[in-house]
């Protein structure tokens, strides 16, 4: 039996044609049928008297009384799929004939065409997806740069390059007080090229400049201008400078500018359109195309200034070249103080900074950051709660010499002689002073020593070298006699 829901319930129940015929059509509960979109038959049932046609549990049963009047309002309660219209009409007519109904009393059937909104939307889904994809690709090709990369940066985050920092901070004064220079007839520099080895802090210095000046900072990499589509590079250059002018005063930073700033006429194919040269030409035009009062300063970083195009380096484009070298011992100490504040130490950061600066000659800022991070990893690997000097020394040995070869086979007697000889050199008063020395083999293929960068007079250096030769010669002589 099919249960008719109460009038307050607006849910619809799907039934089969057999249930429709036996439990709705035969008792005479069907008021009319509406066929929607020639596929779904909606059954509208009439209200039956409670005494004869409906039990208290709302269960449909075959009444023995007369069929209720068609004038009773029908409500949509059930539906079923009809397959084809011809088959549905034929089966419905046969069922009513079998029930002995008069043709004038047949259940009326109407056909309607309804619009289902989600099906209509699905028709436009491929087109909408294609348009969205084209829009996304267009924005991606036109963009490529980020805005606001200098937020939260300042001079406190930069150390070890005081001269370069002082020179580049002049651009901050240019952006903050342009009238002060223009009244004297001075032209604000349009750009500066940051030159230096990798890891010396060129990008960090540019971000600090933007943070100190409080102006928008637009950053992009030189490789971001190059895409597989022709014309994307020049288009991105135009969009970059257009955005910079709209939010002027602002700073543009192009990292690794040598990717697009190479000397023209090299590496291209004859008779073809060199996308890199087109991008460089557009960059040259944009840099020399806006006035001195536009408030847009271009900074660029590279570690290969020798391959850049001469037109890019001339005054009026990159007016200044700021060299950022590796820090000296004082600069390394300042950098260590910055990174040591982020590590949980067993002592004050100033206790370690001077010692670590002496142990890391020739290290750049990125190398110093790696030392601090490696020391923290060594401490964590040793299940320590704080980082000590022993962890820093192990980290420096790991970075300079690589992993120690603990299982490397060797002659213990030879290793002993080598250790004694190096120990005598360490204790020798006239020998060059050393911070540390190791005979442990490593993946670098050698043992190593670290000496502080001291200048020795020629006479003292000669005397110390002679003493070392005498000590080593005496040790080798004793070793040869012991092997006989």
TrEMBL record:
Q: Where does the record place it?
A: Mitochondrion
Keyword ATP-binding in annotation: yes
What segment(s) does the record annotate as region Disordered? 51-73, 408-484
Query: What InterPro entries does UniProt report for this protein, alphabetically?
Result: AAA+_ATPase, AAA_lid_3, ATP-dep_Zn_Metalloprotease, ATPase_AAA_core, ATPase_AAA_CS, P-loop_NTPase, Pept_M41_FtsH_extracell
Major place of residence: mitochondrion
Q: What are the entry keywords?
A: ATP-binding, Hydrolase, Metal-binding, Metalloprotease, Mitochondrion, Nucleotide-binding, Protease, Zinc
Q: Which GO terms describe its molecular function?
A: ATP binding; ATP hydrolysis activity; ATP-dependent peptidase activity; metalloendopeptidase activity; zinc ion binding
The record ties this protein, via Pfam families, to: AAA, AAA_lid_3, FtsH_ext
Q: Mention one GO biological process in which this protein takes part, according to its record.
A: mitochondrial protein processing
Q: Which PANTHER family match?
A: AFG3 LIKE MATRIX AAA PEPTIDASE SUBUNIT 2, ISOFORM A (PTHR43655:SF2), ATP-DEPENDENT PROTEASE (PTHR43655)
Record-stated family: Belongs to the AAA ATPase family.
Protein's recorded name:
AAA+ ATPase domain-containing protein
**Native source species:** Ensete ventricosum (Abyssinian banana)
User: Taxonomy-wise, where does this protein's organism fall, top ranks first?
Assistant: Eukaryota, Viridiplantae, Streptophyta, Embryophyta, Tracheophyta
